[in-house]
Write a structure and sequence with these properties.
three-stranded antiparallel beta sheet; alpha+beta; globular; 2 domains; Aminopeptidase; four-stranded antiparallel beta sheet
């Protein structure tokens, strides 16, 4: 995880990094004293059931002074599903070569998206306030709970110039966006939102492609 992550997670979620490396994993504690293994976005809360996992958890528990707790476990221990990379990019790839990363369907859709009468920009260091309305509309369409605006303000506070927002606009209206964190050769996608009215223009392909193009241009 990035150096900024523990402070952000503690302020945004009330989860404190207890130890950076316990058996190769970060160990976290929430405001209620419950302990978790895992990083940002993967705080698994299920209790262990198998005897071997309980034994492993007991070893860690004794090392950090825990008596009763639920634990999370990584893929290496119990086959828990982990997040896989969106793309693996060869070292030194140029922005003009990015189409080689896509399959045939994605290439065709991206070319159509680039021909659409939409404008793309990348905001750095903060998320425009006008973006939040589209975010909430997207969450409602997906029947998912929206985060408060304060969460995105905390992202800007802690990640600053590493926080980027791709905006696709149509007559100054935001119709699609990706929000991501980039530091060095690492990129982590946070949000993808769009208006269904602009799906025929392949707006999602457009904002993903612009994110990848911009990242390659800056050295990912």
């Amino acid at each position: 995880q990035l150096p900024q992550t523990p402070a952000f997670v503690e302020e945004a979620f009330g989860v404190h990094l207890e130890a950076a490396d316990v058996h190769g994993l970060p160990l976290n504690r929430d405001r209620h004293g419950k302990h978790f293994w895992g990083g940002w976005g993967s705080f698994f809360t299920v209790c262990l059931e198998s005897a071997s996992l309980i034994q492993d958890a007991g070893i860690v528990g004794r090392e950090v002074g825990m008596i009763e707790a639920c634990f999370s476990v990584p893929e290496q221990i119990e086959g828990v599903k982990s997040v896989h990379p969106l793309l693996q990019v060869p070292v030194g790839m140029l922005p003009a070569q990015r189409m080689d990363l896509y399959d045939r369907k994605a290439r065709n859709q991206t070319r159509r998206a680039r021909e659409a009468p939409l404008t793309t920009t990348v905001a750095t260091g903060s998320i425009p306030a006008a973006w939040y309305e589209l975010y909430r509309a997207t969450r409602e369409r997906l029947h998912s709970q929206s985060r408060e605006w304060s969460y995105f303000e905390l992202l800007a506070k802690h990640f600053g110039p590493s926080l980027h927002t791709v905006l696709a606009t149509d007559a100054n209206e935001i119709v699609g966006s990706t929000v991501y964190i980039q530091e060095g050769t690492y990129l982590h996608l946070l949000e993808n939102v769009s208006r269904p009215s602009h799906w025929p223009m392949r707006v999602n392909n457009l904002v993903y492609d612009e994110m990848i193009r911009s990242a390659l241009q800056s050295g990912v």
